[in-house]
Design brief:
The protein contains 10 helices and 11 strands. It has about 270 residues and is of the alpha/beta class.
Amino acid sequence: RFMTDTKVHLLDGGTLVIDGFHAFWNRGPAGEVRFPCYSVLIEHAEGRYIFDTGYDFDHVMRVLPFEKPIQDKSQTLPGQLAKLGLKAGDINYVINSHYHFDHCGGNKYFGAACTLCHAKELEASGNCQPFEHLGYSDMSFAPSLAAKRGLKLPPDPLLDMYTPKFETLTGDQEIAKGLRLFETPGHTAGHYSLMVELKNRRPMLFTADACYSKKNMDMMCISSFHLDPTASLASMKRLKALAEQHDAELFYSHDLESFATYRTGADFYS
């Protein structure tokens, strides 16, 4: 049923805007920085995995309209999967690097999948610091936690039937052959980055929000949305070291210039 050779598809989920002082903490320059949000589909011998699920347009317009989302219907996860001849029900596992709204907004589509995340991250999303409330504002990935936090989810037929199965992890983990999660906390309490080993090229190391862009890495400058800036910097240094150790290519989460060079949609890495 599954390919034996691993394939990686990057699924374009549209763009958002933040200020330059948030993208590059206390460095800037100020002004709007538009950045991409994408999901990673991994076709693997052990199943189909999605790493991060982007943002939900309606949620952003309701709660964070100042981030000026641009996303058409083809950039929703069902729209992106349809281009590959897949449906949400074909996905076996959802892996979330962390539970900020722009990385879990599509979880609700995958009611049949098992959800993997860091134990500390699941805990934090239900009990976050006051300054993290906007980051953790989309709780559609865990309706029961939303109720616990007193957040009322808007009516959504998908969520009426949605009781996700969570498998929580701690520490670095190889979740399937050649799929490795590395702990990179700081941006959030339980942040994971993902490395995928492939047959025909160097490993792909997805930083997620431990590092937004190549410029962040080059400047060793973290972004401002963080729980612990010191841990954030240590995680960036760790990613750099992991890339060297494994001869892996870094793929950044929110880097418009880099994203323009990535293969997306039906085009894949293998």
